[in-house]
Each structure stands twice: as C-alpha cells, then as structure tokens.
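To: structure desk
From: M.T.
Subject: fold request, one chain
Message: Could you run this one when you get a chance? Sequence is below, nothing fancy, just the single chain.
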Amino acid sequence: MELSKGSYLCAENYDEPAFEFCNGVPKEGEDWYEVCGTPYDNYNEYLLVISLICALGITLYGSLIRSPRVLMGKPKDVHNTNTPKSKKERKKN
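Reply: Done. Structure tokens follow.
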C-alpha cells in the first residue's frame, strides 16, 4: 500500500472531512486560498478522548518525576559497608 500527499489541495478531488474551502472552490491559477476547519461530529466524545490522553500523560509524567529510578535504573550504593569507617577500624584489619 502506497500513500502519497500533494503539496497543494486539489479543488476537484477534495474529500478531507476536517477542512473545507472558506470562500468556495478556488479559481484555477490562484496563488492563495483559504481553508476553514469543520465542526466535530461528536464534540463531547472529542473532549473526552483529549481529556483522557492529557490525564494519562500527566499521571505518567508525575510518576516518572517521583520515581527517577524508572528512568535511570537502580542507584549505586554510595556507602560500601565492607570498608572500615574510622582509622581505628582500619588498623584492626
């Protein structure tokens, strides 16, 4: 399956449901034409889907910020418990 996209909108073969020509079909040879958006078929469904995507993103972002180990892996142990902690302990060993 091959998909292609032109640089310009074809006035005769235009079947995009999201946009329409504002001032009617442009005349042949015109350099500029206006394209307007069309209303959503089900605006409430659109708002629900966008809200859920935003909530999911905010939740994921917040959980990653609170738990940086998810991104950076398990932190290394800075304090090695096998090494002596004072000069006296070093002399004993």
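Reply (cont.): The radius of gyration is 31 Å. Let me know if you need anything else for the meeting.
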